Amino acid sequence: MTTEPTLPPPKSDAHWMALALAEARLAAEAGEVPVGAVLVRDGQVIATGRNTPVAQHDPSAHAEINALRAGAAALGNYRLDGCELFVTLEPCAMCAGAMLHSRLARVVFGATDPKTGAAGSVLDLFALPRLNHRTQVQGGVLADECAAVLQAFFQQRRSAAREQAEPLRDDALRTPTERFAALADYAFAPHYVQDLPSQRGWRMHWVDESGEGAGGEIACCVCLHGPGEWGYFFRHLVGQPGLRTLVPDLIGFGKSDKPKREAAHRLEWHRDVLLEWLARVQPMHLVHPARVVLVHSAAAGELASLLQAAAPDRFAAVLRAPEGGERIKDAWRAPFPDKGYEAALRALGPVVSSSGLTAAQARTFVPQARNAMGYSTT
What we know:
Layout: H1 13-29, E1 36-41, E2 44-50, H2 53-56, H3 63-75, E3 84-89, H4 93-101, E4 106-111, E5 136-138, H5 143-165, E6 172-173, E7 190-193, E8 204-210, E9 219-224, E10 243-248, E11 258-259, H6 267-285, E12 292-296, H7 301-310, E13 317-320, H8 329-333, H9 343-348, H10 359-372
Parallel strand pairs: 3-4, 4-5, 9-10, 9-12, 12-13
Antiparallel strand pairs: 1-2, 1-3, 6-11, 7-8, 8-10
């Protein structure tokens, strides 16, 4: 049985903003930037509006303008004396001007707009003393909720653009991003590469994060997971002070593409992909090889040996990461929604039961890694 969402108390600012949020979500469903507005007078909804510039081919069809037009038509007057407008995003200059012309008594908005906001962020049209009308303005009502709707929309749009720019091979699968959303301690910016010769069109994901170092000194680790694991193994090492961590997900694991056939997965092939990736990122991300250490899990020992043998001058040292603590089987299963995604597991080994580095182990491991690279540990 489904239940209707609970609204804030009637007649409150939060109540009207919740109605505006409902309009914003309808805009998102239609592919418009999710902004919604509600026009209220004497505790009654006069009109609603949501963004429709795309559908109407009209740059002026913002949620606020649509609500003002509908309200003026409903009241039979272009002056909207005594009306309050609730909108999920800080008005732009166009909408603020229309609100002043309509003689609104009050404007209430949710999230601020640091790029085009005309109610205090970029400029404040409502505060100009030379204008002959004063409209009260209040911001920040349900600001987090309003911002979240916008952020989710633009994240989805960026993901769609990336998917279009990085097409998925017919013989591969790509784990939905929501499979990773609930995992703790792994909210790092994603990086992808798909055009390395050895990749053959399969996309690889990696993380690149730096923690502040003493005197600006940042040492660098390349962190290698093994079969049955992915970059989540190193989640507590990423971002540690004094360390830069580059953590690739082997193709077939983690957030990288999943080839459907077992034959694609040979350790020698993964080695070749990693070598090409290192050659690509080193000019942009890595310091001299003498300042780089390869850190690997126990399961990645064989692959680390192959990598070191193929490029003996690439790393200052090769270190095995400690492991232990609570089991995180759910995290290891996250990349594999069903058996179709599991070719790499069938070829190289099953999901492991290790938990990876704990937070305490990561902190004590940093001095060891920095010392191996010749950096000060103090």
